């Protein structure tokens, strides 16, 4: 599983998706990230992502982003976990 630290991420690398709840994201947003709560993402990931684009996932503790990255790697997506 690919991982990088948030300080290494640059927008030109691909889209950054924060899997935090809306309330958590609003109180402590990740700069440059699009917020898609984990539960919503898991239901609709196939409609939200393009297999030809790279994606970066972050969450508060790394649990949800780790699960998402492992799952999406299995399905052939170009994904990376971003750690705080």
Care to describe what's here?
The structure is a single chain. The chain is an alpha/beta fold and 84 residues long. The protein has one domain (3-83): Oxidized Rhodanese, domain 1 (3-Layer(aba) Sandwich). The protein has 3 helices and 5 strands; from the N terminus they run E-E-H-E-H-E-H-E. The protein has helices at residues 22-27, 38-48, 63-74, and strands spanning 3-5, 15-18, 34-35, 54-58, 78-83. Strands 1-5-4-2-3 form a 5-stranded parallel β-sheet, with helices on one face. Strand 2, helix 1 and strand 3 form a beta-alpha-beta unit. The radius of gyration is 12 Å and the shape is globular. The two termini are 16 Å apart. The mean pLDDT is 97.
In the sheet with the most strands, the strands line up as 1-5-4-2-3
In percent, how helical is the residue content? 25-40%
Number of strands: 5
CATH fold field value: Oxidized Rhodanese, domain 1
Total tally of structural domains: 1
- Overall 3D geometry? globular
> Between the first and last Cα atoms, what is the distance in angstroms?
16 Å
The sequence of SSEs as H and E is: EEHEHEHE
Which spans of ≥5 residues are poorly predicted at pLDDT below 50? none
CATH architecture heading: 3-Layer(aba) Sandwich
Rg estimate, integer Å: 12 Å
Proportion of strand residues: 15-25%
CATH class label? Alpha Beta
CATH H level, superfamily name? Rhodanese-like domain
């Amino acid at each position: 599983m690919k991982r990088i630290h948030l300080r290494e991420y640059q927008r030109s690398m691909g889209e950054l998706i924060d899997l935090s709840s809306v309330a958590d994201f609003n109180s402590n947003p990740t700069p440059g990230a699009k917020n898609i709560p984990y539960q919503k993402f898991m239901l609709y990931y196939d409609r939200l992502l393009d297999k030809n684009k790279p994606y970066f996932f972050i969450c508060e503790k790394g649990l949800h982003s780790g699960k998402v990255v492992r799952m999406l790697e299995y399905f052939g997506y170009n994904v990376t976990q971003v750690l705080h």
